[in-house]
Amino acid sequence: MQQAAAAGTARTEDAAETWTSLPWMMLDLARRRPQAPMIRYWRGGAWRRLSWGEFALQVGSLAAWFRQQGIMPGDRVLLVSESRPEWNIADVALMAIGAVTVPTYVTNTVADHAHVIADSGARTAIVSIPSLAARLAEAAAGRLEQLLLLDAEGAAPPGIPSHRWADAVATPAELPLLLAEVEQIPPGRLACLIYTSGTGGLPRGVMLPHRAVLANRAGIAGFLERLQVAGTPYLSFLPLSHAYEHTVGCFLLPSCGMEIVYSRGADRLAAELTEIRPTLITAVPRLFELLRARMLAQLEKETPFRRRLFETALALGLRKLDGPPLGPLEAVQDWVLDRLVRNKVRARFGGRLKALVSGGARLDPDLSGFFLALGLPLLQGYGQSEAGPVISVNLPWDNVRHTVGKPLDGVQARIAEDGELLIRGPLVMDGYWGNAEATAAALRPGPDDGTWLHTGDVAHLEEGRIVITDRKRDFIKTLGGDMVSPAKVEGLLMAEPEIAQAVVAGEGQAGIVALVVPAEGMADKAGAAIARVNAKLSPIERIRRWCAAPAPFSVENGLLTPTMKVKRRAVLERYAGEIGALHR
């Protein structure tokens, strides 16, 4: 592992290589840099900071309180909260005493919570606000024995003994003794159960040991060191219950010296970019689609001269990415436009971004090209909850945007005979909680004696880089026996500014049909967008008929995951009548 700088404090390679658990890493770093800022968060109308030293003291107190409440090693504890410092403190405190964190989305329905509680066997829950606590109490059906409420105000739900955060963190603790304990935690001990998003059915509990998250850190630390982001802010936007943000935002980036700043939400993002001036942001493709649409909508309000400047900067930027090379006069023009146009675009994102990392779903190359051509370093990565979750990522100095980059150090990748991507390394999960059948399907021996994770993604390798083409189970087989990639067609549809969301269908039918959600104010133009997409497709892939969905896909109506991925199966089931009518 390469040496990682942290908030102006040098740390030796030997210290990093000895960490065998996440609590040891975090408490050891707190001992080394107690005054350094760790987390910035909004509360009481102002930004506030939590230092590493304050973090460690609260971890020690909370760990002592958990033990007083009878929480034992191996016990699963539900954690349901918005992004806030208490989330990180509780997570590390639970792991420090050998308990298992079960992060759960605040947007979950009662049925979602009921499934996770029953499946994990959790008997204790940590929850932020009374309304969430009431939803949990309804879902628990008597299974929860106690709640820890983060907010002091509001009534606790009846029927479950409840405790307050302020009382718990007032518990006396012996931090040196806890640090000595966490040094003995083996790397293979279960750290957390991360439930999958449920795009293909009921969520499953992914068993991630400490070594999986530490392997992700080892694989990315050199990249962060080269970016020189230590001591700078990272704007955290994704929910902490997501596998990616749990690993990257809770452990990886802070351990490499970045200050984590919790965003107040999508409606505040534009203001926070200029206020916080982050060097790093991670998000899902949907956010970048929305940002592009917003930029183009604002461009329409500009004068014709300013629009031409923007369009020329975009065109020349794409030429630099894809060729042919710029001529001498074009290079001068591009230099001028970099100052007139791209500098203003970069300023709207804070002015010092070193990487915008997209993950969680396919990033259309045209979408990433838009941002790259305007001087914003948008990179595509790839991962799965079952693999720590980071498997690969493009780099600013080695960005091939139709790929998801090269596997991290320590990650082996190969392609099975049927095209499925297989992964091996210390980042791979131990299996699915209480589901031996699903575990056996996902973790299988290879041609050697090793065990490989079957990702379910169809891919190929180009010069060591991974290129994802589709989900293995999502391929559409038409009546004529042709195989169509829905991800490709849907990606092209949503790349059009007139279309916000799209799902295509055609299994066992004569051709492909589409259910689309037009962008706001664009319902009358969706047909033209589909015609443009059809011009880019082969005859078997073309959309024969389409209709507008009765309502947008959302988390609230159960058709989007909390990380903005469309639940294809749920959409196809919900609108089976509309889709069936298109096939007739």
TrEMBL record:
Q: Which Gene3D superfamilies match?
A: 3.30.300.30, N-terminal domain of ligase-like (3.40.50.12780)
Q: What keywords is this UniProt entry annotated with?
A: ATP-binding, Ligase, Nucleotide-binding
Return the InterPro entries for the record.
Answer: AMP-bd_C_sf (IPR045851), AMP-dep_synth/lig_dom (IPR000873), ANL_N_sf (IPR042099)
Listed under catalytic activity are: a long-chain fatty acid + ATP + CoA = a long-chain fatty acyl-CoA + AMP + diphosphate
Q: According to the lineage, what is the superkingdom?
A: Bacteria
Question: Which one of the record's GO molecular function terms can you name?
Answer: ligase activity
Location of the AMP-dependent synthetase/ligase domain: 30-433
Q: Does the keyword Ligase apply?
A: yes
ATP-binding as a keyword? yes
Q: Which Pfam families match?
A: AMP-binding, AMP-binding_C_3
Q: What is this protein called?
A: Long-chain fatty acid--CoA ligase
- Biological source species: Siccirubricoccus soli
